[in-house]
Write a structure and sequence with these properties.
Elements: H1 2-6, H2 11-28, H3 38-49, E1 55-61, E2 68-73, E3 78-84, H4 90-107, E4 113-116, H5 126-143, H6 146-152, H7 159-169, H8 173-183, E5 187-194, E6 197-203, H9 205-209, E7 237-244, E8 257-265, E9 269-276
Parallel strand pairs: 1-3
Antiparallel strand pairs: 2-3, 2-4, 5-6, 5-9, 7-8, 8-9
This protein binds zinc ion.
Length: 289
């Protein structure tokens, strides 16, 4: 353990180490493995890694502009993990706590204060952006270990299964869906939209390589008028319906279909999941930009 604590630690590796320890602990005490008890993990994390500067307290506070923060206290001998107590959803609160724990594990030698929002700030320096995304990866890996997640999804993914996963891990449906999309070898695109416009989207690696992504970071992207997502008469379609891929991806061949699933999410308006057939791309390879 001493050796690994000195080596540069990646969010994947750090979360995996904690997951391995938790697995052994839960088996030995016959305790429930999920949802992961983030607060207890945070309070004992320094013991796992043999560090002197513990997280001395995990507290809710009124920190209006932030979701959470991690700050040195006690003459720099320890840390306080603070989360916004006005966050109602336990899933969001837990993700915030795990995110701050990620800063503690990964970045605490770099700063003495981390103040985090859920928004992606335009004026962030690339260093901030990197640390924020690493803390998110850590949190997702700690709360939703992939070995267990894979056991929960049988056949093609759908929102019914993802909702059960969100309950199992006590995370938001959005966090569970993002986790699955980032890990899946299927061609999946997750789209969050509000009032007919894409708020953000995330493609699996396979989907990205197939040309299935939306440029919502750069441009304003409208939800396609013929899509299920745009259909106001359908509040939710958990298992998905087959629609022409061209609706979402204009370069798709006419015969190509996507499975489109949709659900109202607590936080983002509509959440849409698209699955392309594994054999189809939505651009011709030579036209790749
Ligand atoms: Zn952060």
């Amino acid at each position: 353990m001493t050796e690994t604590s000195k080596a540069p630690i990646t969010p994947y590796k750090a979360a995996f180490q904690l997951t391995t320890i938790l697995k052994v602990f839960n088996a030995a005490h016959a305790s429930v493995r999920f949802p992961v008890d983030v607060v207890t993990v945070a309070e004992h994390c320094h013991e796992f890694f043999h560090w002197d500067d513990a997280i001395e307290k995990v507290v809710g506070a009124d920190i209006e502009n932030f979701e959470g923060c991690l700050a040195r206290i006690d003459d720099d001998r320890g840390w306080a993990l603070i989360f916004n107590e006005s966050i109602q959803s336990s899933g969001r609160r837990r993700f915030t706590q795990a995110h701050e724990l990620g800063h503690y594990v990964l970045h605490r030698s770099l700063r003495s204060l981390f103040e985090c929002t859920s928004e992606d700030m335009d004026d962030w320096q690339s260093e901030d952006r990197r640390m924020e995304s690493e803390a998110d990866v850590f949190a997702a890996n700690l709360l939703m270990p992939l070995d267990d997640f894979r056991e929960q999804i049988s056949g093609s993914v759908d929102f019914s299964q993802l909702r059960l996963c969100a309950q199992r891990y006590d995370v938001s449906l959005t966090a569970a869906a993002l986790r699955w999309v980032s890990a899946s070898d299927k061609k999946l695109v997750l789209v969050a939209s509000n009032d007919g416009f894409v708020r953000w989207s995330s493609s699996s690696d396979a989907a990205f390589k197939a040309g299935a992504f939306l440029r919502s970071r750069r441009d304003t992207v409208e939800i396609p008028a013929d899509s299920l997502t745009a259909d106001q008469t359908v509040a939710r379609e958990l298992d998905g319906v087959s629609v022409p891929a061209k609706i979402w991806f204009p370069n798709a061949r006419p015969g190509t279909k996507v499975r489109e699933m949709k659900i109202d999410s607590e936080q983002y308006g509509a959440l849409t999941l698209l699955e392309l057939p594994s054999t189809d791309d939505v651009w011709a390879p030579w036209s790749a930009e």
